[in-house]
C-alpha cells in the first residue's frame, strides 16, 4: 500500500511546534502562578520544563532568572536574563537585569540596562523609578529628581516615585518641597510608614522636632520594631531635651538590633547628658569594640571623662578622635575645654582658634575662648570674644551669664547683675546664673536677696551627684523644731562645713535634737562643737529624724543678716592630748612660729584664682620665722621648690582635721589662702591672715580687712586681679612686726 505524504515533514512539524508551544504556555502559566504564590521549587520545575522544550524561550528565561535571584543565585540569574535579552530585548528584562546589577553595586552597568529598557519603552514607570533610585545611590540627586518627575508625569500616584522624589529633594536641600512630596505620598497611602518616617527626617532637618516626633511615632505605630525608626525617634527626643525618653527609645532599638552602632552611640550621648557618665563610657566602649575608628564615640567618651574630672583621660580621648577627624570643630572645642581644666591655657586658646578657623560661626567656641581669656585676666579680649558669640546667638542665656562673670571679675557689679538678670529672663531655671547672682548679692552684703538666690546651688547639675534625696522634708525655718530631730548635713567643701557648723547651737536652742553629718575627716573635730546630740561621718547609718537641711541652707532658713551672724569664736576646740603631743613634736619655740597654706582643693571651681604658686612666697621665707606647712596634700609641681625651702612639713602626720587643729594651737599665726585651713583657724579662734584674690569669694565681702564671720581674721586682698606680689609684700611688712 502506497502511503502518500502530501505535506510530509512541514505539516508534521507545524503540528508538533504548536503542541510544544501549547504545552509551554500551560507550564509557563503554572510556573507564574507558583512563582507568585512563593512556591519557588514548584515554579522552578515548570520553568525548567519549558526551557527543556524551548531553550530559547525568552519569557521563561526572563522569569526563571528572576526566580533564581530570589533564591539567592545572583550569578545564574544574571546569565538567564542576559540570554533572554539576547533572544528578545524586552524592556522588562532589561529593567530586571538592571535591578539585579544595582543590588550588587554595579550601578553604572545597571544604568545602561535601564537606559536600554527606556529606549524601548520610555514610559515604563517601574524602570524610571529604578533608574531614579540608582541615581540616588550615586548621589546624583538632580538627575534622580528629573527621572522621578518623568515617572510621576506618566502615573502621578506611584508611591515609590513620590517617596524617593522626597529623598532627592531632601538631599538637594529643598526641604519644604520634600515635605510637600511626602504629604502627596501619604494622600496616596496614609499607612505608608516609609513616607511618615522620611517626612519626619525632613522635619527634623527643618528643626521642627515636635512635628518630626509625631511622624516617627505614626510610622512606628504602623510598622513596629524597625530599628532605624526607633533610633530616629530617640534622636528627636534628644533634640527636645527629653533625654530619659530618648534613652528608652535607644535601648528599644538596641534590643532589636544589638550591633546598631548609631543607636548605641546616641544612647551614650543621652547618658552623658543625663549625668550617668560611667554608663555613657560603657556604651562608648561598646561602639568602639564594633568600630574602633568611630570618632564621635571617642569624643563622647571624652565628654563623659570631662564630667568625671578625669581631664588627662578626656584629653587623650579627644586627641584620638581628632586623629581620625582633625577638622571636627566640636572635637577641637571640647579638647580646648579639657586643656583649660588642666590649666594649659595657651594650648586651650589654640584649640579654640583651630575650631573657629574651620567654623567662624561656632558660637560655643567663642564663648569658651572668652572663658579662658578670663582665666588669664585678659578681660578686654575675653569681652571681645564674647561679643562675637553674642553676635551669633544674642538670645543665648549662657552668653549673658558669661558676660556677667566678666563684669563681676572687673568689679562692675551693676553691669554684672544686669547681665545675670537678662540671662534669667531668657532661661528662668538657669541654676548657675541664680547661684552667681546670689553670690554677688552676698558679696555686697545684701543677705536678704543673696541667701534666697544661693539656694539655687542645690539645682546645679554638676553638683547633683553630691546630694541625696530624703523622705524627710527640708527645713525652711518656718516649722517648729521643738521636740523634733533635725539632720544637718555637709555638702562637699570642708571650708563650708567648718564655717556653717556654727549654726548647730542655734538649732538646739530652738528645742531640736541636732544630728550633724560631716565628711569622715571632720568627724572627730566636730565632736567638740556645742549643739549636736550626735555627730556622724557621712556613710554611717542615720538615726530617725523629722527634718533635714544642708548646712549652707541654714543662713537662709534662719534669716541671717549682717547683725545676726553667729560671731562667737572659738566654736571648735582642739583635743588637749593632741595639743600636747604636737607641742612636744615641735619642741621649744625660739622664733615666731607661723603656719602657712598656699593651695586648696584643685577641683574647686575657683582654685586657679585662690591658690598661690609657692615660689611667690619666697620673700616671706627669708624672715626670721619658723614656718610650718599646714598643707595636707602638696601638689607635684610644688615639690621642687619646697625641697629647698625653710618650711617644716608634716604631710604624713596630719591624719585628719583634729590633728591640724591641735597643731594650730602651737602656732602664733596662721597664714592661708581661702581654703579649709583658713576656716579652721577662724573656727578655733586662732589668729589668721587670709590672702584673697580679686574678686574674692562672697563670704569675705568687699573693701574690708576684717571678717564678720571670724573676728580674729585679717584679710589681705589683691589690688589687681591675678597679682599676688603686692599681697605678699603687705604680709611681709606686717610679719616684720610680729616678733616685736
From TrEMBL:
Pfam families: Glyco_transf_9, TPR_11, TPR_16, TPR_19, TPR_2. This is Tetratricopeptide (TPR) repeat. It comes from Paraburkholderia megapolitana. One of its GO terms (molecular function) is glycosyltransferase activity. Gene3D superfamilies: Glycogen Phosphorylase B, Tetratricopeptide repeat domain. It comes from the Bacteria. TPR repeats lie at residues 91-124, 125-158, 159-192, 193-226, 227-260, 261-294, 295-328, 329-362, 363-396, 397-430. InterPro entries: Glyco_trans_9 (IPR002201), TPR-like_helical_dom_sf (IPR011990), TPR_2 (IPR013105), TPR_rpt (IPR019734), Ycf3 (IPR050498). Keywords: Repeat, TPR repeat.
